């Protein structure tokens, strides 16, 4: 045996053999580094539109259709994560946000009583203008003929009714919030329109782990290069190194992804404790994730936008107008019957409806106050952080990984291509073993 090893080692080109692990190590580092670039950049699609490509893409294999831009008729690239921003939003809701709390729970965290107080503070100065505009439009002669003290008394009475009206409005929103607010649509639309936000979610709490994955690319590549060097020295065929380079490139990327996400819970393998880089920092990640969701996604400002201008906005306006009508009747006070006779029932009802419609939009305008929204965001952040920490590790990993799981093959294929190129480069520099 020793004699055979001596004869074999005497005939080995040690420079050729020693450079193979170094090559595979460097290629492994480049694979993981460029793989991160592919994951995150560019945020928007960069490429060219080709006539007929959209139609051609529909008959390509399903995996090919997943390449960013093809189904839109373009040839180019968009980072895998921003390209799947809407999908990640959907999965984030299904896997996590839906478990973090119902729309009602989110709304209660925003403290409706404080919202009502803020609405009253902001809306009260606008009431004189609101009453003036409506009365001048609907019954200008009557309003002009009323003595100033009477007009001022009407405005004061409306202002006096305001806290009760607003309290009723915020209560009605809370009662019907599950029918008026859809967090899933909110999150999906916001992620689709702001793909950079999804990149930020990964970057803000995972940059350290991603950098470690790049470093491990060299380690994995170097270790895999050792058996490649041995096999190549035995076989000595020109085609072997490029083929083994494909295997090394594919496995290096697969190991990098495994290193980040698996296993979701601590496990011992060959006596060594292993735990995915992301799930081991779930508590820290929960704080970052909660801050981003509370500051940018599920905010009081965006809830107000969704309630009034979202797909269920008409229902919100109708509900609020219904809640406002009784208060408008009360604002007329003892003179209500006389006013109704003076202007006519239909005209009185028109005035009441106009005031209600005008008041709906202005009632929820304070929802869109950015400064007030930021103050209330702390409550949402605490809720999401607490619930995210309580998620089972597998659900947490799935929330982060599911959006890119179907596209991981592109990263592996990219690693295989770079491994093939590395094999040919080594062959060109050092020849056949």
Automatic annotation (TrEMBL):
Q: Does the keyword Membrane apply?
A: yes
Arranged from A to Z, the UniProt key words for this protein are: Membrane, Transmembrane, Transmembrane helix
Keyword Transmembrane helix recorded: yes
What are the transmembrane regions?
20-40, 210-231, 237-261, 409-430
The protein's matches in PANTHER family, at most eight in alphabetical order, are given as: UPF0754 MEMBRANE PROTEIN YHEB (PTHR35791)
What is the official name of this protein in its record?
DUF445 family protein
Q: Which organism is it from?
A: Nocardioides koreensis
Lineage, opening ranks: Bacteria, Bacillati, Actinomycetota, Actinomycetes, Propionibacteriales
